[in-house]
Design brief:
Oligomer: heterodimer
Strand content of chain B: 15-25%
Helix content of chain A: 25-40%
Mean pLDDT of chain B: 85
Low-confidence stretches of chain A: 124-131, 146-150
Shape of chain A: globular
Distance between the termini of chain B: 28 Å
Radius of gyration of chain A: 21 Å
Distance between the termini of chain A: 16 Å
Number of strands of chain A: 15
Number of helices of chain B: 15
Strand order of the largest sheet of chain A: 6-4-7-8-1-9-15-14-10-11
Structural class of chain A: alpha/beta
Mean pLDDT of chain A: 90
Strand content of chain A: 15-25%
Largest interface: A-B, 81 and 86 residues
Largest sheet of chain B: 11 strands, mixed
Shape of chain B: globular
Largest sheet of chain A: 10 strands, mixed
Chain lengths: ~425, ~425
């Protein structure tokens, strides 16, 4: 029996560009970015070293979404964004509610945000030797009322499953910046294996708070560069200086081709392969030879049953950190070395447009990969003016590229040395 | 998911309140001896939540020796226990990842409350605690100008920390995933591991879970959710009429899974079925009689009575539970039960439910008192999360010859690949 074909039939995204994938796609093709000046709300004198981020602009919230329960219920920002994105994906898919009943929900969300604010409420004022439990419980109830305490990492998946009536498996992935891509990859595998026929997969995250951004700065991961203003996210550029954080969420509906066709859905693209790997090198830095990244891409291609030469485009992880962009380039060159195919590849990095969405990053990047396959249009790598030494691929610098994209890869890598790669194919009913 | 090809448990390891290693856990289980004790924390105290399943400090110190000092700064204690549990499991399986040529897969599960804990921040918070509560500006200055905040907090809080550290220590450059959410996370990790073995993508699957709820905010949340007792109870007595609620614990457990055809042992414990559902009532239970059923209970009599009514659908000779030994584990609940089931099948012995005196259901064959020898071949495990998610695992002890000589032929090329 041939393996089941898995197609993407619905997409929803919340990013700094807005609350749907369509506005994200159109603005990104135009070369826009949504990185703006940002400071944590606790710091009012502008002294926080990280000055820019791609925050979600609530002023862009369309009227039809203003009544969404995500804005009323006590939830963290990341859960709100994820819930809205999942709702949008469901709506975009054209599914009826009852058709989602057996769906699996696979969700990645990063570390809970704003723990300092929680603790400010929970910590007893008079406690010096240790927090008083009774006081802590009382304070915790206040925090609970404000909706933060119980927002553990499994909250979003459960909210989505409850709201959309999904009774299939509810799986929480927590693999840092590769989280959403892992969720999508797992969903693809579950459908292909026949465990479920339909799944909602993706992620949501927001690190735009004092403690997480402070820690990312102290780790040297977040850029505090002032020279380029809001153009400081520069993947593969010689002047790149670190990641620029974004926030948001993205979910896609995956289902078997048979099921999609039976209900008259028109797939955006087909997922045909998934691979993952571990660097086993360092917690905070990728293997300088890009071995782990190469392993993931090779595993994905093997899983898809395609040759490297068939690949037209790569949606790169492209964080604008000195280490990632150099090693990812090296890994791509290694995997696509036969016939120097890497010279033919179009490589696009999106984080200079909507920032690094951390655990959610893989979801909107997957959507852009699928749309590239559908429309033969590739989003540009903005702010890339002077490719770094060794960064000598075709990065679609500054302008969107029109070229045929039959087969594409989407890369997502994470802290801890975790790498994932997904293979996407232009949708054709008959192969 | 029904497993079509046999998957064997080739190695086990654990670091739990019962001590270091599977022997310590199994001895505690046979003795019906709970390792739950008084709750100890330097940063909070309580009269309502008084008990906890602590990993002993000497055990923790022993585990630390296995993780290089430069890696320990990234590790909350549970990750260090996870590393040790994996090492035990690999040893039992006779595997040396850096030396053999087998293809490995690593699947992790961490507890749900892995955020920066109150304990992590406590010293700094107390220092910045002013008359009107926390002085956030002072805190920010301390953090950013004096680098007072441990910058590795953000990494410690990532739930894939276990994945990263275990891969580094063992040099696993392999396929992987990191899950969370207790029972659901354990199930997802086992499912992916089994599928990867059955598809021949890998030859060895390492599944590890680790977590700790020893944090004021986490325990507070668990108490509010009714998962743990907040009435000052110091005993965890699931399935007992006098049960007074759950008690949290901490620890790590690991399994090494192999394709049964790749093993030559005289007897193997095979994972023969995995199933799950968001509702216990819709969970697919074994349709054949089992000899032993291991099940986690809530120690809330009304809920345990409902659970036992569902369990009554399983034809079984004995019902036991490992939870009173360790407390409710956030990272490895199912993995610990799988380890207990393995040992029960290997030793042909039924461990009692520690502390059970008055069963809530007289019709179920709850194991009480002393451990007892029994003929055990098939075992089922039913686990539940506090959100209702339920999973059922089935295990079977098989003679090697029943696995079929023809399947063994596949093993040689696999091992050489």
């Amino acid at each position: 029996m041939s393996a089941r074909r898995v197609v993407i039939t619905g997409m929803g995204a919340v990013t700094g560009f807005g609350f749907d994938w369509q506005s994200m796609w159109m603005q990104m093709l135009d070369g826009a970015h949504c990185i703006r000046p940002w400071q944590p709300e606790e710091i009012t004198d502008g002294s926080f070293p990280v000055r820019y981020a791609a925050a979600v602009d609530m002023g862009l919230l369309p009227a039809y979404l203003q009544e969404h329960p995500a804005w009323r219920l006590p939830l963290e920002k990341r859960s709100r964004y994820g819930w809205v994105a999942a709702t949008q994906a469901f709506s975009d898919s054209g599914l009826q509610a009852e058709q989602l009943r057996d769906a699996a929900v696979l969700c990645a969300s990063g570390a809970p945000q704003h723990m300092l604010a929680d603790m400010q409420l929970a910590l007893a004022d008079e406690a010096h030797a240790g927090a008083d439990w009774r006081h802590l419980m009382q304070r915790a109830a206040e925090v609970q009322a404000q909706g933060s305490l119980r927002q553990s990492n499994d909250r979003l998946a459960q909210v989505i499953a409850d709201d959309l009536g999904c009774e299939g498996p509810v799986i929480n992935i927590s693999s840092a910046c590769a989280g959403a891509a892992q969720a999508i990859g797992n969903a693809f595998q579950m459908i292909r294996r026949g465990e479920v026929e339909i799944a909602l997969a993706g992620g949501a995250d927001s690190v735009l708070n004092l403690d997480t951004m402070g820690a990312l700065y102290l780790l040297g991961a977040a850029s505090s560069e002032q020279r380029w203003g809001k153009d400081l996210c520069r993947p593969f550029d010689r002047d790149r200086s670190g990641l620029v954080a974004g926030e948001g969420g993205g979910f896609i509906v995956l289902e078997t081709l048979e099921r999609a066709l039976a209900r008259g859905a028109k797939p955006y693209a087909e997922i045909i392969g998934f691979g993952s790997s571990l660097d086993a090198y360092k917690v905070t830095a990728p293997d300088p030879q890009g071995r782990g990244a190469a392993f993931a891409m090779q595993a994905a291609l093997r899983d898809a049953g395609v040759e490297p030469e068939q690949v037209d485009m790569i949606n790169a992880h492209g964080t604008s950190t000195p280490l990632n962009d150099a090693t990812e380039t090296l890994a791509i060159k290694n995997v696509f070395s036969r016939g120097d195919h890497y010279q033919q590849l179009a490589v696009s990095a999106n984080k200079s447009q909507f920032g690094h969405l951390i655990a959610a990053a893989g979801a909107p990047e997957m959507m852009l990969t699928a749309l590239a396959c559908r429309d033969d249009r590739i989003t540009p790598t903005v702010n890339l003016h002077h490719p770094d030494n060794g960064c000598d691929l075709q990065y679609c610098a500054q302008q969107a590229v029109s070229r045929r994209v039959d087969l594409a890869l989407s890369n997502s890598f994470g802290f801890g040395g975790l790498n994932t790669s997904l293979v996407v194919r232009k949708y054709r009913e008959v192969l | 998911m029904r497993l079509d090809n046999s998957i064997s448990i080739a190695g086990t390891g654990c670091v739990l309140p019962s001590g270091l290693g599977v022997d310590a856990l199994w001895q505690a289980a046979r003795d019906g001896r709970s390792a739950i004790g008084p709750l100890r924390s330097a940063h909070f105290h309580s009269r309502r939540v008084v008990a906890f399943g602590h990993v002993a400090d000497e055990v923790h110190q022993q585990c630390r020796k296995e993780v290089a000092a430069n890696l320990q700064r990234y590790c909350p204690p549970s990750v260090i226990w996870g590393v040790n549990a994996v090492r035990q499991a690999l040893d039992e399986a006779g595997l040396e990842p850096r030396k053999d040529r087998l293809r490995y897969g690593l699947y992790c599960c961490q507890g749900g409350y892995t955020h920066p804990s109150l304990d992590s921040y406590a010293e700094l918070l107390h220092e910045c605690n002013g008359n009107n509560g926390l002085d956030i500006c002072r805190l920010a200055r301390r953090v950013l100008q004096e680098r007072a905040l441990d910058p590795f907090l953000v990494l410690k809080s990532l739930s894939n920390g276990l994945l990263g550290i275990v891969s580094l220590v063992n040099k696993f450059e392999c396929e992987c995933n990191a899950y969370m959410q207790g029972v659901a996370g354990n199930l997802a990790a086992l499912q992916e591991a089994s599928a990867a073995l059955q598809s021949y993508r890998i030859d060895v699957a390492v599944v590890v879970g680790a977590g700790s709820e020893l944090d004021g905010l986490a325990l507070s949340a668990l108490a509010q959710a009714g998962v743990i007792s907040s009435n000052g109870s110091s005993a965890f007595r699931p399935f007992d009429r006098e049960g007074s609620g759950g008690i949290a614990g901490e620890g790590a457990a690991a399994l090494v899974l192999r394709r049964s055809e790749d093993l030559w042992g005289a007897q193997q414990v095979c994972l023969t079925g995995l199933s799950a559902h968001a509702e216990l009532g819709k969970l697919r239970l074994p349709n054949k009689p089992v000899d032993l059923l291991l099940c986690g209970g809530t120690a809330i009599p009304k809920q345990d009575r409902q659970l036992s009514e569902t369990l009554a659908a399983i034809q079984t000779s004995h019902v036991s539970s490992g939870q009173p030994l360790t407390g409710i584990l956030s990272g490895a609940p199912s993995l610990v039960d799988l380890i207990l089931a393995c040992r029960a099948l290997q030793d042909q012995c039924v461990p009692p439910i520690a502390g059970l005196r008055q069963p809530i259901n007289e019709d179920l064959p709850f194991a009480m008192g002393a451990s007892r020898p029994a003929r055990l071949q098939r075992c089922a495990i039913v686990n539940r999360d506090d959100n209702g998610f339920s999973a059922c695992y089935q295990l079977e002890q098989r003679e090697a010859r029943t696995l079929g000589a023809d399947t063994a032929q596949f093993s040689q090329p696999t091992l050489q690949s």
